[in-house]
Write a structure and sequence with these properties.
single chain, Tetracycline Repressor, domain 2, 10 helices, 211 residues
């Protein structure tokens, strides 16, 4: 009797299996032995297709970014930034266990780089100077990182006895069920308004044509 047939390994298959593993069992479950066992192979077989954990994490990010419903041709530019932020958060929300693995890692894959290029083109067309492009995009990313981490359910501890609590903590102890969404909407709107004000200020400081 021949050996049971196993699908051939591929880089894409490894990345998808890694994301499935994280989705189902959490970030701590991601290891070469666990991933190899899931794929029905020995650990060293993975290294014929990927260089190591860093490449797997980059691949997980690429898969998540590939799920984004993103259109950077939307105008005005503020609507495109709003849509980008919401699409990114929605993609992360579908894979909350992957968020701790990705936060703080530089985006190096082609999907991420294409996204940067599209964002820079959008902002240039809106009149943003070159030296402001990366800071503006990073500002959005920093905000998204914080809002994404809020999607991860952390273990909670019971508060101190009621008699020891300072007054006025009701919003903290009993927030509305959708408080994360409310915070995200408020923060994103404030961020975009701040960008608009900054661009208006830059426009007033810009020399008039011909001078």
């Amino acid at each position: 009797m021949g050996r049971p047939h196993r699908p051939a390994l591929s880089r894409d298959g490894i990345m998808r299996a890694a994301l499935d593993l994280v989705d189902e069992e959490g970030a701590a479950a991601l290891s070469t032995p666990r991933l190899a066992a899931r794929l029905g192979v020995k650990g060293p077989s993975l290294y014929n297709h990927v260089s190591g954990r860093d490449e797997i994490l980059d691949g997980i990010r690429e898969l998540i970014l590939g799920e984004m419903d993103l259109d950077m041709t939307v105008r005005p530019w503020t609507a495109a930034v709003d849509g980008w932020a919401r699409a990114y958060r929605a993609a992360l929300a579908a894979h909350p266990h992957a968020i701790p693995l990705l936060v703080g890692r530089p985006a190096r894959g082609l999907s991420a780089l294409r996204g940067y290029a599209a964002a820079f083109d959008l902002l240039r067309a809106a009149g943003w100077p070159e030296e402001h492009l990366m800071p503006l995009v990073r500002s959005v990313e920093y905000f998204l990182t914080g809002s994404a981490l809020a999607l991860v359910d952390a273990p909670t501890e019971p508060p101190p006895p009621e008699e020891e609590l300072p007054p006025g903590l009701e919003p903290f102890l009993n927030p509305p069920p959708d408080y994360r969404d409310i915070a995200f909407d408020a923060g994103l709107a404030a961020l975009i308004r701040g960008f608009e004000a900054t661009l208006d200020t830059l426009d007033t400081l810009r020399p008039a044509p011909g001078r």
